[in-house]
Amino acid sequence: MKNRGIWLVAILFAFGASMTTRADLVYSLAADQSSYDVNVGDTVAVNVYLVETATGGSTSLLGDTDAGLITAEIRLAFGATDPAQVHGEGDISSNGSFDGSSLVKGVGPGIATLQQDVDFGSPPVPGFARGPDVFAAWLGTFTFTADAVGTTHVAIEGFNANATNFTATNANFEIFELTVQPGSFSIHSESGTAVPEPSTWILAATAALGLAPTLGRRPTR
């Protein structure tokens, strides 16, 4: 990605920082829910986050002042014929704080991708507190349409398994490559058969009672 290269080269040249991995900061991908229920024909919006959990004494890269993400590249993988699908790039919303010109959305059978970065000179994308020693950064929203009844299992992964998909910086302009664990969620598509309201049941019962005397009366000659 062009802007990521500018960001990294400029900072590495100016400050002599080196890429490294934070072993005591654990990163994973997650949706806002592990399971969603939706009626066939309806849509469900799934927010995806990068979650940071501190296991040691290092300063957070998502919760510290002037720290945050520079790049984020994610892929949602599911079955090409699964009941719920992302049908177009318009069904993918990015985090506007990633203001680089290299924003790329992709949609195909069983896959939806989002690549985004921060323009050089713009602040990194921060996270928010999700719990004690846990921070999360919103990456984007993927809208699925339920086309048929059934369950769709979705894996949340880095865009490229053989490359660094997430980089962050701290207040000292040091760059960190993040090792991120994949996540997952499920979408359960249902038929959406309407259940009659109580008033409907009452009207039906009344009509049946009204017919009862008629049905039980023999015709007179």
Question: How many distinct beta strands?
Answer: 15
Shape call: elongated
CATH architecture descriptor:
Sandwich
CATH topology: Immunoglobulin-like
Give the C-level CATH assignment: Mainly Beta
Largest sheet: 8 strands, mixed
- The count of domains is 1
Count of helical segments? Answer: 2
What oligomeric state do these chains adopt? single chain
Pick out the low-confidence regions: 1-7, 9-18, 200-205, 211-216
Order of helices and strands: HEEEEEEEEEEEEEEEH
Report the C-alpha radius of gyration, rounded: 26 Å
Give the helix proportion (percent range): 10-25%
Structural class: mainly beta
Mean pLDDT: 83
Beta-strand share of residues: 35-45%
Distance between the termini: 93 Å
Give the helices and strands, then pairings.
Blueprint (H helix, E strand, L loop, with lengths): L1 H14 L9 E7 L3 E5 L3 E12 L13 E10 L6 E2 L6 E3 L9 E5 L2 E7 L10 E4 L2 E13 L3 E9 L7 E4 L5 E3 L2 E2 L1 E8 L7 H19 L5
Parallel strand pairs: 1-14, 2-15
Antiparallel strand pairs: 1-3, 3-10, 4-8, 4-11, 4-12, 5-10, 6-10, 7-8, 9-10, 11-15, 12-13
Account of the protein in words:
The structure is a single chain. The protein is built from two helices and 15 strands. With 221 residues, it is mainly beta. It has one domain: Sandwich (Immunoglobulin-like), CATH 2.60.40.680. Strands 2, 4, 7, 8, 11, 12, 13 and 15 form an eight-stranded mixed beta sheet that branches. Strand 12 and strand 13 form a beta hairpin. It is elongated.
